[in-house]
Design a protein that fits this description.
99 residues; alpha+beta; two-stranded antiparallel ribbon; 3 helices; 2 strands; flat; disordered C terminus
């Protein structure tokens, strides 16, 4: 019975040790780790959603120019005006803003 009672304390100690080790990793390694965790969650059927915009799902993080950016995907075309514009222009290629 002693082992079962001590399990939560050991688990907490392991988590704190893991956090200590993670704090020493370079930023790109941390981002890769988070991306791997996001992928594992997705493979298990769990997506990470934006708190304020529930239709947006976190896809991955990237590190560009000293900043961390989150790439989110939306299931609703109305949630992202750029996606809506692109799909409209795909139907009528002559209306492309770049032309």
């Amino acid at each position: 019975m002693g082992k079962i009672k001590d399990f939560p304390k050991q688990k907490m100690a392991d988590a704190l040790q893991a956090k200590k080790q993670m704090q020493s990793l370079p930023i790109p390694a941390l981002i890769s780790t988070i991306n791997m965790m996001l992928e594992i969650l997705h493979d298990r059927g769990y997506d990470v959603h934006d708190w304020d915009r529930k239709e947006k799902t976190f896809y991955k993080l990237t590190f560009i120019g000293g900043s961390v950016y989150a790439l989110c995907v939306s299931k609703s075309p109305d949630a992202c005006p750029a996606v809506k514009e692109t799909t409209t222009n795909a139907k009528n290629p002559t209306n492309h803003p770049g032309k």
